[in-house]
Amino acid sequence: MALFNLFKKKKNPAEQEPMDLDSVMKKFDRESNTRVWEGKPKIFVNCVLAVFSLFCLYVTLVANWLDQIRLTSFMAFIVFIGFLVFPAKKGVQKTNHMPWYDILIMVVGTASFLYFTFNAMNIIQQGARLEVYQIVIGIIGILTLVELCRRCVGLPILIVAGVLVVYALTVGLTNPQFFGRLNLLVSQLFYSVEGIFSTPVNVCSKFIVVFIIFGAFLERSGIADFFIQIANAFVGGFSGGPAKVAVVASALEGMVSGSSVGNTVGSGSVTIPLMKRTGYKPEFAAAAEASASTGGQIMPPIMGAAAFLMAANLGLPYSAVIVSAILPAVLYFAGIFISVHLEAKKEGLRGLTKEELPKVKPLLKKVYLLIPLLLLIYLVSSNTFTIQYSAAISIVAVILVSLFNKENRITPKRIFESLAAGAQGMITVAVACGVAGIVAGTITMTGLANQILTGIVALAGNHLIIALFLTMLCCIVLGMGVPTTANYCIMAATCAPILVRMGVPDLAAHFFVFYFGIVADLTPPVALAAYAGAAIAQSNPMKTAFTATKLAIGAFIVPYVFALNPAMLFIDTTAWEVVTICITSFVGIFAVSAALEGYFLRHMTWYERIISVAGGLLLIYPGIVTDLIGLGLVAVVVGIQLITRKRSTVKA
Question: What's this model's pTM, rounded to 2 decimal places?
């Protein structure tokens, strides 16, 4: 990036240490562990990927196929390109090499899905009466998807799915014969639209794919670098500027990206060295970037693709979901921004000098880069076109807008690259959705969801706060190492019904489990975003993860707010209620963040921190009485800070 090179020149040569960002991505992001293709094989693979993107656009925008045909052909393509892209294990890959067994698995797995595609009508008419060879084909298809998931997603979600499948085959299903249970399981998971081909894959093939392609085009328009530069121009000069740049840039990038690790490495390669250079400790620098980048998963309009699934699960317009997501996301980023500001004040850190800051006028001339994103938001929120057509129009807008940008003009070659990159980006999401369908399908057919729901509700009694706490623990455990999209699918099937049973509105319940599912990227022991940031900052990974968890305190508080008072999500509320909850929540998050940092106007004593936390939590908890008590406690801390600071100034 140009901005990175600009600052790199000003560094002390002794401080310059080479950082292989590709190795960081491959270590912490399975999507980056790909085969190495060069020359003609690379052209062939990219052609296959580009054709798949065009196939998805055609099926989504033009074709009117039967769901079983559309979904099975989609997954057949995913299996084929998945094995072309992802090797069996991590490590150094031979150039232009694909072992015979990978070719065999790829061909047999693709054929198993295509068998369903070309025999869809007959299979539908058969129902659950499957022949032995059909059961074998179904098992091959499921195992192929599982192996591809191991390669590009990871083991955590497979462990969950594996345990549930074993449970179904042993005690979960009532059929006394093992073959009967196997027949029923394969029929449900492979030959119906309630397993692999259920809502997650359906939404992925219909909506998410177009947005992933849109993101690939947008990335090549140079908007990510523009976000970082504009953030530098406006907040880089303030105290602790580079950390504030990380927060603002990550919030902006989160609107088009759904990968916490990708965001951390992408913008962190610029912001983390700058934070260290201006005086932030390595652990804090890495944690600030990781917590801000993880926030990209909850930032509308994309939300790591979970917004589409949430809309489909709840039967709500997509625009309603993203509007409800705005205020919680702003509060989350506000909490991080406050923390990095207080850390800078506590340590006496400066911002960037005028010479280091990008000029505003040249950047404002590139504001047209935002047109495709603003157009997308307008089209989606106004319901002018369907979601997929809105994304397709926005792709065209990206190409047209890029014509005015000499540095990142989207030429025919870049169109080809964008289509190929979009297809590669779909693999992990589609595979995760498929395995999430296995999880949801198994839970549904065994009735396990009701048992979990009944157990937690009984344990919580009539106390909603206890049910929220227990659900939070379930979400964090189940969400460890699981990609955002699959993460939400699992949470929606297992944990959201618990809160709905306790009286939480559907949308608030789904947002609650979604938030606590994704914070696993920050919380130890599986804190991939924090570990990726630590690799760039060369800091202690575990200390970085704990610091990131502290900075992301908003993600642990905000969900309780909208679960207890859905006004934050604009559910059955008035403008006055929204204004009130915004003010009290912002003050509450500020008080809690100050207590965790141990600094406000000066260093806080232990009792000031306790009072501040208590006051902040009371402000966040909805209610007039709690708000008044919380304001009183925070006012006490502010008063003490003002008096003691004045005394220390007089003595000095």
Answer: 0.83
